[in-house]
Amino acid sequence: MRGVKCRCGFATTANRIRCPRCGKHMKVAYWPNQANVIVYIKLGVVPEGQEFPMDLLMLEVKNGPKFVCWTDAPMSEGEEVTFVQIENTYICSSKQGIDNLSHDAPASEGDGGGTDE
């Protein structure tokens, strides 16, 4: 994730030159695509333009910004998630779900692993 951060600690994904908190110059910063859920909002109506139900999350990146993200899975406060940016929108999924998929995937043939001979 790309954004800007000030020495005072304010961080945002918006492209800002000056900090709205202290007025000093902001510097470009990069953060990993992992964050913690601060708030999960279950929407009762499918948002206009969406083909299926999407819910909203307020996320916080460690030492980084807070921002809003869309998800199609229930989440809970404090849960760690991963996200991708598609144009100006962030889409999230459970980090635990992604980790489980990689552990549950069957080993492919010829993967260089040992044999039981």
Quick structural gist:
This protein is mainly beta.
Report what the structure shows.
This protein is mainly β and 117 residues long. The chain folds into two domains: 1-30, no CATH class; 32-104, OB fold (Dihydrolipoamide Acetyltransferase, E2P) (Beta Barrel), CATH 2.40.50.840. Helix content is 9%, strand content 37%. The chain is built from one helix and eight strands, in the order E-E-E-E-E-E-E-E-H. The strands form two sheets. It has a five-stranded antiparallel β-sheet with strand order 6-5-4-7-8. Strands 2-1-3 form a three-stranded antiparallel β-sheet, with no helix packed on it. The longest helix is centred in the last third of the chain and has 10 residues, at 95-104. Mean pLDDT is 81; it is low at 99-117.
What structural category do the secondary elements indicate?
mainly beta
Report the major sheet: 5 strands, antiparallel
Q: Per the principal axes of the C-alpha atoms, what is the gross shape?
A: elongated
Q: Would you tell me which CATH topology of the largest domain applies?
A: OB fold (Dihydrolipoamide Acetyltransferase, E2P)
User: Could you report the average pLDDT, rounded to the nearest whole number?
Assistant: 81
Total of helices: 1
Strands, helices and their partners?
Blueprint: E1 2-5, E2 11-12, E3 27-30, E4 34-41, E5 55-60, E6 66-71, E7 80-86, E8 89-94, H1 95-104
Antiparallel strand pairs: 1-2, 1-3, 4-5, 4-7, 5-6, 7-8
Task: List its salient traits.
117 residues, OB fold (Dihydrolipoamide Acetyltransferase, E2P), 9% helix, mainly beta, five-stranded antiparallel beta sheet, 2 domains
